[in-house]
Model the fold of this input.
Amino acid sequence: MKKVGIVGANGYTGSELVRLLAFHPKVILSFLYSRSNSGTKISDLYPDLTTVCDVVLTDQPEDVDILFLCLPHKESENWLNQNPVKDETLIIDLGNDFRLNGNFGSRNFIYGLPEINKKQLSGSKSIANPGCFATSIQLALLPLAQKGLLNEVYTTGITGSTGAGQSLQSTTHFTWRNDNISAYKTLKHQHVEEILQQLVSFNNNEISLNFIPWRGDFARGIFTSSTVKTDLELSDIEQLYKDFYADEPFAKISEKPIDLKQVVNTNRCVIQIEKSGNVAVIHSAIDNLLKGASGQAVQNMNIAMGWEENLGLNLKPIAF
Amino acid sequence: MKKVGIVGANGYTGSELVRLLAFHPKVILSFLYSRSNSGTKISDLYPDLTTVCDVVLTDQPEDVDILFLCLPHKESENWLNQNPVKDETLIIDLGNDFRLNGNFGSRNFIYGLPEINKKQLSGSKSIANPGCFATSIQLALLPLAQKGLLNEVYTTGITGSTGAGQSLQSTTHFTWRNDNISAYKTLKHQHVEEILQQLVSFNNNEISLNFIPWRGDFARGIFTSSTVKTDLELSDIEQLYKDFYADEPFAKISEKPIDLKQVVNTNRCVIQIEKSGNVAVIHSAIDNLLKGASGQAVQNMNIAMGWEENLGLNLKPIAF
Amino acid sequence: MKKVGIVGANGYTGSELVRLLAFHPKVILSFLYSRSNSGTKISDLYPDLTTVCDVVLTDQPEDVDILFLCLPHKESENWLNQNPVKDETLIIDLGNDFRLNGNFGSRNFIYGLPEINKKQLSGSKSIANPGCFATSIQLALLPLAQKGLLNEVYTTGITGSTGAGQSLQSTTHFTWRNDNISAYKTLKHQHVEEILQQLVSFNNNEISLNFIPWRGDFARGIFTSSTVKTDLELSDIEQLYKDFYADEPFAKISEKPIDLKQVVNTNRCVIQIEKSGNVAVIHSAIDNLLKGASGQAVQNMNIAMGWEENLGLNLKPIAF
Amino acid sequence: MKKVGIVGANGYTGSELVRLLAFHPKVILSFLYSRSNSGTKISDLYPDLTTVCDVVLTDQPEDVDILFLCLPHKESENWLNQNPVKDETLIIDLGNDFRLNGNFGSRNFIYGLPEINKKQLSGSKSIANPGCFATSIQLALLPLAQKGLLNEVYTTGITGSTGAGQSLQSTTHFTWRNDNISAYKTLKHQHVEEILQQLVSFNNNEISLNFIPWRGDFARGIFTSSTVKTDLELSDIEQLYKDFYADEPFAKISEKPIDLKQVVNTNRCVIQIEKSGNVAVIHSAIDNLLKGASGQAVQNMNIAMGWEENLGLNLKPIAF
Done:
């Protein structure tokens, strides 16, 4: 059994990690770090965890084999500076500190999208876990990028309220958000740079990504539709995608309509392609807290540690 | 045209009053008072009001014919002490300051449930608008109370998130509240005393009301089911209720199943009675912000001013 | 008072017309036609209408001044062939039979988008009411089309379940639709042709509209985001839109973020524009059953009859 | 590995069993029976099951070690008559055919509520799985019944739409159900008899259960509040419940407020007790498809087979 620590365990992605790792056969939760909730049982913050995990949150990190950082963006680097971690520890950062530039001291964080970087992730000690929208949109576009077929992309995506975290905001007030739809960060979402850095490394030429994120009136999940121009036939695109993801346990191409709830409470991404004239639309759906965050972090841990990729990730979908 | 002022116009019930009075044919909005949002247009707080009402909130009240107080509970009295109002002004208080004891200086606040106090409300200058659950539960029980037939009552009610106001709380966070149900203030909701004071004045003997309020995963509305014992036949109870509410424009007895959305965005209360053995259940439903607050306040204004009772209250139901 | 008949009053748009016209000061409901529900009170189908409108549905149409057709697509023409209507009667068809080609016998149906055709609608006897998505998307694009500035448009839109009508379908089953998002009719929604016919008549050159409709997990409303390229500055686009809609009571340009609930239960369309580089995004929101159907039909009636355009349309927004 | 068959695998409870058993370490799915969907892959009906379980539904049952019946009420007996099952096969019926009277041929179905019948269930070959409301309400009342402390009980419960099954009905139409609350089967729900039969066997005297079920606007879960009179102190009641459920892995007493989402997508029941005067309220919450149906069926299988009770039931809660 490997010892695990989670920093920022009191947040949504941190507590999802607890839910996943509590039943993982190869790890034990060694400490759950939280400055603001130190001294409180995690199950007092999240009563669904009662008897599943009643660990008391602490502000005293210990030596562990695997460390997950679930901090607000731009706080991982600070935390690591203040709490030095030995070189042998696998660090998986769920924030965005090391996604664009992975260098930190002697470490070099690998971008943790297993569908492109599985080899580099294997045995790695430093992993930058991708963003939620970034995961959904990249998985929708990677096979085309790999063939150098992307130019202009028009993407609309919708996210559940968990994407906004647990802080109380007017846009997460139930009275406002229920039955409501709104756009935010139009054309300037922070994930665009992250997406383009990866896609361009494949595509070898300029890509423009016009991305409109919407707030949805549900708690979990991301659904994105990306429109591109291509002369490929639909069946050729589908084959391209199937080949690209042939060995991937969590990326699935569907020839039938997909919907968000197919993936909620799972680590999966489902992708469907439609075409009319020379315009193709690629739909993709993930659970933003799992394949878009904590589930993918466990997947990355499994790969880095040389374990079966889906260990602890055979989750019962919510389905209904 | 009568001049109206609304104190606490920046809250939910205050802004609902603006929505109702903006199209009322006998009044003009003279001032909208808010200390915290003074200087801001009401339509900047509530964009649905743009061009409907672009009045700037002020902390300087003026002389008006009709004054609505939409303040947090226990603040109405303070406000009136600090901002003396002349005797000729009709004051309608939506808080709970004067519901149990209506005496304030030379004023005597009448409990503003038109279905029992219409005569006293007519011409009155001081009205204490009932609470939302109090309205739904009283309308469900009044005809039985009037006949002295109430003893023990078991009521469960569910309320939308607007009942909790606009402040950001963990129990109104979308992520928590969506798809969720929970109980609060079990057996000790503050409306029980208000309800009993009215019912007992009719019933002439002891009543016990065991009331369990639930938080619902919707924004608007209250649905309550009250269980009582009675030897009356169902048809007799229905007749009793129909007679009691025969002249009431906003209380309707239904012989068919009722549901909450029948009344959302209206000033109505619908009531249905079911019976098995000697046990009767009375279901009732209202929109908590309208018949449960601002709509009833307008109804009370109409009655007090001698206007048609439903003036400005012919509202299109949301229906779907 | 003008006499009104509604054909298909048992459906969603038909019953919304009843809700609107029951309180309209210039009309009386003369007959409500339904073959399948003939003999039933409309208020038994829609209990929210109890005492508001208890008219019995009939399969015997009468002579009226104004006739609304709320039939499934492609059934209006059949109905008119089987039930001849005299020439003086104003016919407003909410189906899509006459939107693309308005010729029918001696009648010539005018496309009923008041923001472009107000003059032709005034005094008209035949009006083809636009589709719901068609209304939202056209209002978002018209000012640019009028200047010949549209080329390629990428639009994603999301609609409430009422857009799918009242028939029971797997995609309107609560268990499936709750918390779910899905795409349908990708790049081939029937409104695209309707939209382009109007836009091209303004724009004078080819426009391509790549439209992805999504099913939303709410009952009412449409939100669309349309992406275009333009060298105009944001402030110039905003001014263009404000000028274009300067005299329109129901189309509003917002410089601040918009959201769907600003317009639910109103006849309004709110529009917001954002820009980055040479890419502009135009967001728009309507209530699909009001500005997208029955509300716009009443607006068209008012214009055709020479009445005030917003008569009967000063609706209280749901707001929360 | 034991061979499992599921009859009625195309329904909600059947497909939930598939989701649970696909990852259960001691069983393999031998056949999935459905007359109406024979020849179709289960993953074509429920795309979330793609690659998890792609078994083709059949109308030819085979010999298995364990057979689950997930048929509409009153169809289990017919099915068994037409498809004889050998004596060694463990049959778990999720319908209500054998709950009140367990005799069927040489079999005697044990009522499958592990919290009362664990000994009889161990090694049993015939189990009648309890109803969903019946599970939630019994778990809320059993410790009091065991002490003979129950007389009159007033219970209100709310259920998600999955409780109504997958057939398309007006009360499961999204447009109607969203944001809506309604009562059904007031005082005459079919589970009352099932509940009383069990409780009375403990309580040894008359119990009256006045039960009002409500339809909720969510898909999964049941929340019930039961009101009783008792002279016991709150702390004594809590201790009584804790003692009663001390060894139960899935029934948990909470001293803090509970909410429905604590148990959604788990096999747990959480219970909270409140008291005022001589009135006690017991709240309880379960996932109607898991502890209220398929999860409890797996729990019963585990007990009957002598396996660890929570095998395959360490489910990640939806939590958000």
